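For homework, think about our next protein:
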Amino acid sequence: FIDKARSAMDNAQRLAPDMPQVQFGWGEFYYRMYSDYPRALKEFQSVQALLPNDSDLLWKLGTTQRRLGSWDDSVASYQRAIQVDPDNSQVVNVLSETLGLIGRWQEAVAVLEQAARRNPGYDVYRILEAQIRLDNNGDLDFAREVLASAQQVPDQSYIYLTTGYAWRSRNYSAAIEAWTDPTNPFLADANFDVVAQNALGKIYRAMGDHSRAEKYFQRAIERARDRFNQGGVDWYAYHVEQSIAYAYLGDSASAMSEIDRATAMRPESADAIYGVLVSIARAEVLMVVGRTDEALAEIKRLLTVPVGLTVWVLRQDPTWDPLRDDPRFKAMVANEVAQ
């Protein structure tokens, strides 16, 4: 697949070497094919003067900058894109998400509320606002109100809110229903399917049905392996999912081996978003395999970095229940400053 993409770009370069869209395409190539964000940023910046009012270019600039941890630059690129194209919902969504990830969640809410006033029929804005409020302020009531009024939308945010709200409300039957909803097209995606198997395993484990939970964890491992065989640039994500499944199945050695592979493939130094998400998974795995001191140290660190954990996630998410009686964990979730 990568070879075909490179061949297409080489042909475009040969046929239209002076077209700015070709240079833009090279940025996309390095971003998507190799996760080479410094090279992608260089390509995008090289064409910026030629396409100063291209909202797609500004969006991609912002997305690349945040992968590199250049958060202020990223926000500025998104804000400029909205100035150019105020009705571009994709940019509104990613700007609000970015503000939420770096702790500026009140600003994120303001962006979404303004966008919702411009387009009151677009439920994604309210869904995203509910997720941001849930993660940063523990607002279960607002999430419930949104889910009661919003229609199902073909957007990943809908899955995350429906499943996350039910899980953090400890309404496990609703969480199972949300993760197995046959009408949601995203759940048919193979990548989501692997995540769903682990999520269902954790739900049944929380319900005390360990036998059924094990079946889902085994299924997550099997389906992640199937995805490996099909290839792809995001293999690290399958190592993450296998690691989580192995941890809950009691195979500590395999769990640590898989999460170490994921960390090596997607370190925080190379990806300020997904690298941190891998680290969150690592904290969970460390907790499950009994390396509590290391897990707590990682959780404490992740409370201080963009994209990391929030106090409200730790307070509400059943994932962290094994630590609730530890005085060190209690001190962290009681720390209002960490919000």
